[in-house]
From TrEMBL:
The chain holds residues 315 to 565 of 565 of the full protein. It is found in: Cell membrane; Membrane. This is histidine kinase. It comes from Puia dinghuensis. Coiled coil: none annotated. Residues 35-251 form the Histidine kinase domain.
Length: 251
């Protein structure tokens, strides 16, 4: 900082601040978030499982109200699991510690795994998920867990932002050098003015949120795909539906 009097430099003030405590605190916060979200995951999964068992056991006939309550417990558990998963992944992203477990992977297996994970949510909204897999898909070098997580995130959004009884398509196809995964819905779509910010952390399209969300899923998805050398993209038109996808180089 220069202090001048009549354009003359008469002194200089240099401020030095030690930001180590700030970094330490930030790291402690990130670790705390990771630990808490990890610890929350198991009991929430078990609540969800118990509610589902209760529904399946049919201890006497369940009336509509009881069925509705069970549905509400599973729905809310799903939402909590999504948030804890996002927080856990966010802590990896924030510390720059995305640890990839790259291995040869089958695109078809990744798609199947993702569809399986969201099948109950889709059923509840009578949404039909159709998978389209190209013949002779090559093996890719990928972190299966993180790649499936991204696809599950796309599918969860597609289900969440689509009307009941609509269709969602998930596909994997390839060109000579790339494999492309895509989730296409017939939902509300996104205004093009928001598309450039859609992968930003905490961004949610204004005014469209009747249900809570963190605005974290797509930003983490972007980090996961780019960490693997892939490219993430979106095409959407308001009122006409959305397509979210990512592309990997074929090995
Ligand atoms: P959230 O947890 O809020 O869904 P995301 O990062 O997954 O966070 O998505 C960010 C925002 O992008 C959402 O809040 C929603 O407004 C919009 N969005 C994402 N996917 C879709 C989709 N398939 N159709 C319409 N809007 C979407």
């Amino acid at each position: 900082l220069k202090v001048t009097n009549n354009a003359e430099v008469i002194g200089q003030v240099i401020v030095l601040r030690n930001i180590t405590p700030f970094h330490e605190l930030n790291e402690a916060k990130t670790n705390f978030i990771a630990t808490v979200s990890h610890e929350l995951k198991t009991p929430i999964s078990s609540i969800k499982m118990s509610a589902r068992l209760l529904g399946d056991l049919r201890v006497g006939a369940l009336n509509n109200e009881q069925q509705e309550l069970i549905r509400s417990i599973t729905d809310d558990s799903d939402r909590l699991l999504k948030i804890t998963g996002e927080l856990l992944n966010l802590s990896q992203v924030e510390t720059g510690k995305i640890q990839l477990k790259l291995q040869p992977a089958s695109p078809a297996d990744i798609v199947e795994q993702a569809i399986q994970a969201v099948s109950l949510q889709a059923q509840q909204k009578h949404i039909n998920i159709q998978s389209k897999l190209a013949d002779n898909l090559p093996t890719i070098q990928a972190d299966v867990e993180k790649t499936s997580w991204v696809l599950i995130n796309f599918l969860t959004n597609a289900i969440k932002y689509s009307p009941e009884d609509s269709g969602v398509e998930v596909s994997a196809c390839c060109t000579k050098n790339t494999v492309e995964f895509m989730v296409k819905d017939q939902g509300r779509g996104i205004d093009e003015k928001y598309l450039p910010r859609i992968f930003d952390r905490y961004f949610k399209v204004p005014g469209t949120h009747e249900r809570n969300g963190t605005g974290l899923g797509l930003s983490i998805s972007k980090e996961f795909i780019e960490a693997q050398g892939g490219r993430i993209w979106v095409h959407s038109r308001l009122g006409e539906g959305s397509q979210f996808g990512f592309t990997f180089s074929a090995t």
